[in-house]
Write a structure and sequence with these properties.
By secondary structure, the chain is an alpha/beta fold. It is built from 14 helices and nine strands. Strands 1, 2, 3, 4, 5, 6, 7, 8 and 9 form a nine-stranded mixed beta sheet that branches. Helix 6 packs across helix 7, helix 6 packs across helix 14 and helix 7 runs parallel beside helix 14. The longest helix has 18 residues. The two termini are 20 Å apart.
Length: 416
């Protein structure tokens, strides 16, 4: 299961919740497969048949089956309140207040700690939600369980504001169920003043994570897909969704050698551990590099924080989405909420607080630097449309593939 970026209220990354929840989730009974066919999945009827082997990939775009009908055109938004189901503090509170003022309603946010937890609650029918923030790797599963409703694009004119690549994404061809929310890359955060050599000084920049010179100060993300994916990329394997046991086994051996060399630690808090100096090198998400300035102790400046992502864009890149829940009590208002978050001004204000970049056409690196949103030396943390083409996305695996990856990461963590 891939995991995602940011929770601000308690100074913890959104993905930290996933990492923390992973052990508990592993003990839960396995959820029914996305496919097909049996059980009501909490939806009150049979699941929609989706071939579990027909996984969405850039070279295998998927048009998800329509489950129900979109709402009609021209309806007035309901009175509310709007019920949003999201990672904790993953929308700027000021943005929520602005929506409340615009539509004269209240917004109620119910948070979850992990996508496993969110799906469990949806499967159990816990809560009456209007809006949900699914990750791309679970999208087919929640559609199969009839938990999302098709979108009516007449309410979403601001979808035109986002990158063309995400107006008709490969994981949801035609944007039938989702609109894009944020984009991010996974690279290497580091203290420019504390490491002997920056990543680009190595023949293979990922080797900084194996460098004994940083022993005791090297951290990886507490995330199975990100860690094993990085080990694959270091070896030149760009298929970060491989289910080849030999490649996963080699990645595990490489990670075990890394731990032996540097006594690695795991966290989802690069934004905090780099400014504090606890980490000299930390596998990191792009938004955490930008947000590090919020956690700088006295005497430390943002100039001391570096972020490396492959200049050719051939690293890990990802995106988050927003959807309307099937059976939502306020579906028209929910559509207006999605459109509101896609508004250029609202997306920019949300980004100022959130730190994770909305894929807005107008937010190019020059503008982000000019407006002080990203320090000039951290433009490598800015995601560009071409990164979606050049990069590798961590996507849904088959059930057997998930077991393979989970087992390898568990073996790595047992020694790390």
């Amino acid at each position: 299961m891939t995991r995602h970026p940011r929770e601000r209220g308690r100074r913890m990354s959104r993905r930290a919740f996933l990492a923390r929840a992973a052990a508990g989730a592993a003990a839960l009974p396995a959820l029914p497969s996305v496919l097909a066919a049996c059980g009501d999945g909490g939806s009150g009827g049979r699941d929609v048949a989706i071939d579990p082997q027909d996984l969405s990939r850039p070279d295998n775009p998927v048009t998800l089956p329509l489950v129900g009908e979109p709402i009609s055109d021209g309806l007035e938004p309901e009175d509310g309140p709007l019920s949003v189901f999201n990672y904790a503090e993953y929308v700027n509170p000021a943005t929520l207040r602005a929506f409340e003022r615009r539509y004269g309603v209240k917004v109620k946010v119910t948070s979850f700690n992990s996508m496993d937890e969110a799906r469990s609650k949806l499967n159990a029918g816990v809560g009456d939600f209007d809006v949900f923030f699914p990750t791309t790797d679970v999208l087919a599963r929640v559609v199969a369980r009839k938990q999302l409703q098709p979108l009516n694009h007449s309410y979403l004119p601001n979808l035109a504001n986002v990158w063309e690549e995400l107006q008709d994404p490969f994981y949801d061809r035609g944007a039938r169920y989702t609109v894009p929310y944020t984009v991010y890359t996974t690279g290497i955060g580091y203290r420019r003043d504390l490491v002997p050599r920056p990543p680009e000084a190595y023949e293979t920049p990922y080797d900084i994570l194996w460098d004994r010179a940083n022993r005791g100060r090297t951290w990886l993300l507490d995330d199975d897909r990100e860690v094993i994916g990085m080990a694959l990329l270091r070896r030149g394997v760009t298929d970060v969704n491989t289910e080849d046991p030999k490649l996963i086994a080699r990645a595990l051996r490489d990670l075990q050698a890394l731990d032996e060399a540097v006594s690695v630690s795991l966290s989802a808090a690069a934004y905090e551990k780099l400014p504090s100096g606890e980490a000299h090198v930390h596998q990191a998400w792009s938004g955490d590099a930008v947000n590090a300035r919020q956690y700088l102790p006295e005497g430390t400046t943002i100039d001391q924080i570096g972020y490396w992502y492959p200049p050719d864009g051939r690293g890990v890149v990802g995106s988050d989405t927003i959807a309307v829940v099937a059976g939502a009590a306020h579906p028209v208002l929910a559509h207006h909420f999605l459109n509101f978050l896609l508004d250029e001004r609202q997306a920019l204000e949300n980004y100022r607080w959130l730190g994770y970049q909305p894929p807005q056409r107008t937010l190019d690196p020059d503008r982000l630097v000019a407006e002080g949103l990203v320090p000039e030396h951290l433009t490598s943390a800015v995601v560009r449309p071409e990164d979606l083409t050049a990069g590798s996305q961590l996507l849904q695996l088959t059930p057997d593939g998930e077991k393979l990856w989970d087992a390898a990461f568990a073996r790595f963590k047992s020694g790390a």
